[in-house]
TrEMBL record:
This is Beta-RFAP synthase. Pfam families: GHMP_kinases_C, GHMP_kinases_N. NCBIfam families: beta_RFAP_syn. Transmembrane segments: none annotated. Residues 90-157 form the GHMP kinase N-terminal domain. Residues 236-320 form the GHMP kinase C-terminal domain. InterPro entries: GHMP_kinase_C_dom, GHMP_kinase_N_dom, RFAP_synthase, Ribosomal_Su5_D2-typ_SF, Ribsml_uS5_D2-typ_fold_subgr. PANTHER family: BETA-RIBOFURANOSYLPHENOL 5'-PHOSPHATE SYNTHASE (PTHR20861:SF6), HOMOSERINE/4-DIPHOSPHOCYTIDYL-2-C-METHYL-D-ERYTHRITOL KINASE (PTHR20861). Keywords: Kinase, Transferase.
Amino acid sequence: MTQYATTPHPAKQASAVTVNAPGRLHLGFLDPGASLGRRFGSLGLVLDGISTTLEMRLAHRGDVGSDTPGDQYAAPPYASEELPRLRAHIEALKRLSGHCTPLDVRLRHVLPVHAGLGSGTQLALCSGHAFARLHGLTLDASELALALARGARSGIGVAGFEQGGLILDGGPRSATELPPVLARLPFPDEWRVLLVLDDARSGLSGPAERKAMAELPPFPQALAAHACHLALMQILPAAAEGDFAPFARGVSELQDGIGRYFAASQGGIYTSPAVARVLDWVGARHCAGIGQSSWGPTGFAILASHDEAAQAVAAARKAGVVGPTLRLEIVKGRNTGATVIHTPAVA
């Protein structure tokens, strides 16, 4: 198993590739209104224990009922809705590269779709990296993201795929450039993230997301300045020093400001009222960084330790605030990016 590397290296062709890419939290935009001319800017955290896993190899037989070799796709039932996106990525990669060899592609696990955890970007990067390694192409995550139309607003997913950790990007300079990474810090090992997932709801995506972004009111410059101040002078320094309380307060304050800005587009500060109920309950009883990742519906509470996170979950369940559509998971931050297992091609 090797760590995904961004350093240029001679491409080594493989006969089979497995890529595992972690999910991420989008902790908030800094300036969605471009008050100084540059739009967005993102703070995000890569997560351990929740990921997309894809296997790719050269196909050795045709589709069922056909003598002509063709691409083959497989996925667990819960992941089958991702197959159309996966097919589209493979077709795009074939057109761009000129490599049209039939492939056998299998999704072993996927991140929850349209849940705010970066499923679209990680699926694209998994398929792109596996395709490149399978065909001996030297393409890094940034090149693959641009080729597959990912990272238009936030660079957290691409940077997280490359290196993990707590990441700050500077927003895109243009539609053809990815946001630059301004800071990357390791996330303290003892801190934990309580994910609150609502399987009954989905966050905005595609045309609905673009429409919502276009209809947002101007983002006040004062709010953008405050968000930048929180990120640069409270959240990141606290993470660097392992000082949990100011980190948690900063994340919650950043999230509250951005949540209120997006409230009209998503029906409130949180997309899911059931998620909001749990987070409000936890936030009133614990020192925690509280918020919603991207358009949700996934919410999060960052707590100082596994024990505190487990106690919060148990108490919330006992109090009856965890609705029937919710799933609560405790995960760590992840300070490494995607991993790849490859079987070298026979010379």
